[in-house]
Each structure stands twice: as structure tokens, then as C-alpha cells.
Amino acid sequence: MKIVFKDTFIIRLENQLEYISLDSTNRARKFKSDLLARIKEISSNPYKYRKSIYFEQDSIRDLIFKGYTIVFRITEERIEVFGFVKYQKGPTD
Questions:
Q1: Measured between alpha carbons, how far is 61 from 65 in angstroms, rounded to an integer?
Q2: In terms of DSSP bridges, do strands 78-86 and 2-5 run parallel, antiparallel, or are they unpaired?
Q3: Is residue 92, in this structure, part of any structural domain at all?
Q4: Rounded distance, CA 36 to CA 68, Å?
Q5: CATH label of the domain that carries residue 60
Q6: Residue 49 maps to a domain
Q7: What is the chain's Cα-based Rg?
């Protein structure tokens, strides 16, 4: 199944990579490489990932990677990766 990266995901990922590279460009490259490898695994069994906590649709799933949530939608033709969220504690946590 084809994986498509939406602009929202790309922009958020680039911002995070830029932030990581302030500390270490090698670490930023490794993070990106490891993340993309994990995302490629989605196509083999997309429904094995948890139902998204951000949406009520069964076709929208979350991939957890190093404290980040990558949100993707499963359609008949493709997988659309559109969300990139870092867990943050709320005021009640």
C-alpha cells in the first residue's frame, strides 16, 4: 500500500528536525531515518496500530515513536500520514 506524506506532517517533522539539529545534526539525521523506516512498516498491517486518541474514526491510527505520535489515515488506495505530535503534560497531569 502506498504511503503519502501530507504537508502538515512534513512541516512539523522539519521543525522538529531543525530543533534536534541544534544539539546534533547526526542525531537529527538518525531520528529522521529511524522514523521513516518505522512509517514504512505501517503498510504491512496498518490496523495493528492503536485507534487514534485524537479522532473517532476507526481508519485513523496512531504510531508511537520515541515519545511522538504519528497520526495516519487508512484508505482503500493509500496510507496518508498527516499528524506529528509530541506528548506534553496537561495542567492536570
A1: 13
A2: parallel
A3: no
A4: 13
A5: 3.30.2310.20
A6: yes
A7: 14
Structural domain includes residue 93: no
Stretch 60-74: mean pLDDT: 96
pLDDT in tens, 9-50: 999 999 999 999 999 999 999 999 999 999 999 999 999 999
* pLDDT exceeds cutoff 60 at 93: no
| Grid cell for residue 18 | 531543525
Domain that holds residue 47: 2-86
Over the stretch 52-66, which tens digit does the pLDDT of each residue have?
999 999 999 999 999
92/19 Cα distance (integer angstroms)? 27
In a domain, 37, yes or no: yes
Distance CA 83, CA 88 (A): 15
| All cell numbers assigned to 90 | 496537561
Count up the domains in the chain and report the number. 1
